[in-house]
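Thread title: Can someone regenerate the structure for this chain?

I was given the following input by a collaborator and told the matching structure tokens would be attached. They weren't. Posting the sequence so someone can regenerate them.
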Amino acid sequence: MARPASTKRPPPRPAGEPARPRAAAASSSSDLLLATAERLYAERGLDGVSMREIAREAEQKNNSALHYHFGSKEALLDAIIRLRMREVDALRNAFLDACEEKGLDDLRTAVEALVRPLAHGLLAGRPDNYYNRFLAAAQIHPDIDLAAHASEESQRGFRRVYARLERALPRLPSAVLSQRYLTGIALVTFSLADFERIRARKARERGGFDMQRAVENLIDMIAGALAAPVSEPVRSRLDGSHTPTRLDRRAS
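Best answer:
Regenerated them for you:
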């Protein structure tokens, strides 16, 4: 004969012992879902994984957990982007603060401030670093506008870097600097994503990869590209003296 269910209540919590709030459990669940979604999106692309797969991979018994926490795929992507942007901006501003204390205001330092915060997880050897691949996937997705997900606060470090570049390259026309800067960010994004992939593959093969050298070389490359001489064709475009060719007319 089965024993009747006990009606005895659990003993009261000792005085001073805090209750485990439901909010903490909810936060832990949402953090796990964010990390799992970032990893799967990085590995398979933003259109290569379903919300159900993310919940299952995160070992969520409730298939509607993602919708409960985030509401939609768009909100989930927004949460990942905003979280990482805040983290990267904090690292970037801390790096810039340290540079200011040391009186460093040269071009390479400005580029380091652009690259190192994004490479932080790679240089620290974190095995769970997927953000660069996720960011690269978001960058090329036709429906994702990363700038639309960025808060004004999370852009402070970028603005400080750009101001340093203007001081380091005073003779570079503003339109050229702006274009080179945006192209440089794209190069950093896809290069770090590639480094991330290479390291993951090397780890599976038990091979080595000199991440420090790769990142330092990337910084050198970006600095060199930013400081490259402005060619005569580009200058003629800037001052309006360019004469359209037959090829230009076809392209337009």
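The two ends are 87 Å apart (CA to CA).
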